[in-house]
Design goal:
Helix 1 crosses helix 2. A 3-stranded antiparallel β-sheet has the order 2-1-3, with helices on both faces. The protein is built from 4 helices and 3 strands. It is of the alpha+beta class. It is about 50% helix and about 15% strand. It has a domain of about 70 residues: Ribosomal Protein L9, domain 1 (3-Layer(aba) Sandwich), CATH 3.40.5. It is rod-shaped, with a radius of gyration of 28 Å.
């Protein structure tokens, strides 16, 4: 393997990826790589995976779908966190049995 050619190809692929992070889709590999897994990785790692043949860049439609799923998952997590923050106040029955007063006047 010519390391100079390999790293040159990695640099060229990384230069074509302008963003600091890139969405990639995994490919089937002889060592058991699972095809079709979409993930976001730093550009240098994504470029290396593309050059090595373990992944490809995601299409615009795949990126859009990935972002929508990420947004939905984040919203679900935020909703769950908010639900855990609900506070409950326990009021003794004796307080509820007392007649209420308004503005200092009794009814």
């Amino acid at each position: 393997m010519d390391l100079r050619a390999y790293y040159q190809k990695v640099r060229e692929t990384e230069a074509a990826m302008a963003a600091p992070n890139v969405v990639i889709v995994s490919l089937a590999t002889p060592d058991g790589g699972k095809p079709g897994v979409v993930t976001e990785v730093p550009t240098p790692i994504g470029a290396r995976m593309v050059v090595e043949g373990g992944a490809r860049r995601a299409t615009e439609a795949e990126v859009r779908t990935f972002r929508e799923h990420q947004t939905a998952a984040q919203q679900t997590a935020e909703d769950a966190a908010t639900a855990n923050k609900v506070q409950v106040v326990v009021v003794p029955a004796s307080v509820l049995a007392k007649p209420s007063t308004r503005s200092g006047r009794e009814q």
